[in-house]
Amino acid sequence: MRRTLEEAVLPAFVALLVAAVVGDILILSFGQNPGSVYRILIDGTWGNAYGFGQVLYKATTLTFTGLAVAVGLRAGLFNIGAESQLAAGGFLAALAGLVLPMGLPALATLPIYLVAAAAGGAVVGAIPGALKARFGAHEVITTIMLNFIVLALLNYLTAAHLKVEGTLHTAEIHAGALPRLSSMIAPFHGSAANVVLLLAFVTAAAVWWFLFRTRRGFELRATGLQPAAAEYGGVNVGGVWWRTMALSGALAGIGGLNYVLGYKHYYEESFASGAGFLGIAVAIVGRNNPIGVVLAAFVFATMSQGGLAVNAVVPKQIVDVLQAVVIIAVAASVPEVRRLARSSA
Amino acid sequence: MIVLAFLAQTLRIAIPYLFAASGGVISERSGLIGLGLEGYMLGGAFCGALASYYSGSPWLGLLGAIGGGAVLALLYAATAIRFRADQVVVGIAINLLVTGATRFFLRLAFHSSANSPRVPGFGSEQSGTGLSSLVSNPLIWLGIIAVAVMGWLLYRTRFGLRVRASGEHPEAALSVGVPVNRVRYIAAALSGMLAALGGAYLALDQHQFSAEMTAGRGFIALAATIFGRWDPLRAALACLFFAAAETLQIQLQGAQIVPSQFVEMIPYALTIVALAGVVGRAVPPAALGRASE
């Protein structure tokens, strides 16, 4: 048990160390003092209520996309399509909002929004799943290609039929928009954090339960560990593949509620803006464990928001570089740590 | 005349694809997934513009691009081969890294996060669709040569045989003395250099680097690699076909027959169709994405 914990935590630790060194070099190259830049980063994120609210908001979307990728990886499937699944979920939720009559209470509309967002993501996810189960088409390539196709399609539908003139977004929805946290906790004023955050925590717990306490979850993990053995053990591997991709897509799709239902109350072109791709990083760093995913979502959300905080001193893109360094370092150290752990056993 | 202008513009659009897809073919045939092509292209565009700016010579710009592409590709190869990292994860991270790093260093070097100042390039700037400016751009010829050389390299040389063996069955290749990992490092470096030339073409043609100027072209090249079934010539034909569709869309823009978003989808939709095997199955190299012992 102790060794598995080390195996899980050590790569993330190594990665943060490497990122800190690269960060120092970049900050020094810009003629700034690394210590004071890191201080600004912390002050601008965890150091005040607004910044922390923004971290919470970003962590919410990243939790959903991270869970989506993690569920896929548990079944041995690499879902690179969270970006477009997130967008499709938000899009369908916004469509539902345009249809729903005004004045319905949030408690009545929330299930409808949930189903709409999940369905949007699930459809986009199920296609590559079915293509893999039926034709053996590799999901990495098909999900990447579908990202471009789905985003182009949503852009077309928005631009040609749905946008408010002069903008890139749909009309505002009025039925059952969710409250921001600032309406309950005043210091969060101005930040985008909203109650979808709680939905993210609940979803993470539900995913954990599904993966580790249900038969379907066991079949999913067995398929990921050894598809041939799972098939021999009576698991319908093709079925697991497309169902898992649908579930993965649904999780990413629900993440769209954070923006559409909790923050802006409309669908806007390219609102996903990389959160789907960062979900891959969140899942990898969180080691495909729902608890790890939530923690990793906070790490990456802090970095993203921190970039905005330090932008006056060093370019905010330093954060993109550091996020990439973290991903590469974790990906490179996971097999290494596992090898060391095995050889010392 | 209209036909000639159409062909000229198609070729113009296709050149970056031809470079990057040639790189994609050799990388994937050696067993390394080509997900970083977009990053190599963008890195090549930036290094090319930077080197051209400081040296005053677009030819040295090309050298800079080649160097930048090689460094990025070797970083990818080292993590995938030496550290056995997941190729998909690192490939995506390389793209994120380059997007951020080019913007960061853009601000460091030129105090702008959007674009570089004017840099020496090939041909005059205004030359929109003219054929003469096209033939006077050496990168056009280099792009066509790259395809031919790649076909020769892959099928007519000992190195090419080793590349294909490493991508199909690395264990068997190792057992007959092929240094699989070294072959893969070289294939990766070549793919980085080629894709970087594709990026440099963009920057030197526009006499400027602008942030994220490759705009997904690396993924179109990857689509062409797959749609061309990992064959240099067929991948090149796929590039030309995708470029022709784009040209058609640009020329028909006034007519509004098909929304541009649907033309954008063509390369990606065709790739999915090819992978699903509706008309002749595209089968990837057997050991693609798998680390060797």
Provide tags for this entry:
heterodimer, A: 345 residues, mainly alpha, globular, B: 293 residues, ABC transporter involved in vitamin B12 uptake, BtuC, 12 helices, 72% helix
Oligomer: heterodimer
- In total, the number of strands of chain A is 0
Classify the fold: give the CATH topology of chain B.
ABC transporter involved in vitamin B12 uptake, BtuC
Radius of gyration of chain B: 19 Å
Distance between the termini of chain A: 13 Å
What series of H and E elements makes up the topology of chain B? HHHHHHHHHHHH
Which band does the percent of strand residues of chain A land in?
Answer: under 5%
Largest interface: A-B, 46 and 43 residues
**Percent helix range of chain A:** over 70%
**Discrete helix count of chain A:** 13
Helical content of chain B (DSSP H or I, runs of 4+): over 70%
Give the class of chain B from helix and strand content and strand pairing: mainly alpha
Q: Which shape of chain A, going by the Cα principal axes?
A: globular
Describe this structure in words.
The complex is a heterodimer of chains A (345) and B (293). With 345 residues, chain A is mainly alpha-helical. Chain A is 74% helix and 0% strand. Chain A is built from 13 helices and no strands. In chain A, helix 4 packs across helix 10, helix 7 packs across helix 8 and helix 12 packs antiparallel against helix 13. The model of chain A has no long low-confidence stretch (mean pLDDT 91). Chain B has 293 residues and is an all-alpha fold. Chain B is 72% helix and 0% strand. Chain B has twelve helices and no strands. The mean pLDDT of chain B is 91. The radius of gyration of chain B is 19 Å and the shape is globular. Chain B has one domain: ABC transporter involved in vitamin B12 uptake, BtuC (Orthogonal Bundle). The termini of chain B are far apart.
